[in-house]
Design a protein that fits this description.
83 residues; GMP Synthetase, Chain A, domain 3; single chain; alpha+beta
Length: 83
């Protein structure tokens, strides 16, 4: 599994999302997902949407670890303004 594969799977499930995935060892990854679909959803619900996009790849440990940060576009803009 490569970072590009994870990015593609997430974008297929959340077509309007901006997805940034890093990881170069094939099993440990970090992803930032920015989507308007997260509006009004709890952090857990947002992460479940992303995890659902990856299907059973997490359970089969094709992806051993995924650090996940999710944002609405507004929250992302605020985050970037603080940086």
């Amino acid at each position: 599994m490569q970072a590009a594969d994870i990015q593609r799977l997430i974008q297929e499930a959340l077509p309007s999302a901006e997805v940034l995935v890093r990881g170069d060892d094939g099993v440990h990854f970090e992803a930032v997902v920015i989507s308007a679909e997260f509006a009004g959803k709890s952090l857990i619900a947002q992460h479940r949407l992303v995890n659902a996009a990856l299907g059973d790849r997490l359970q089969r440990e094709e992806i051993h670890a995924l650090g996940l940060r999710t944002f609405t576009p507004e929250a992302w803009a605020a985050q970037q303004a603080q940086a």
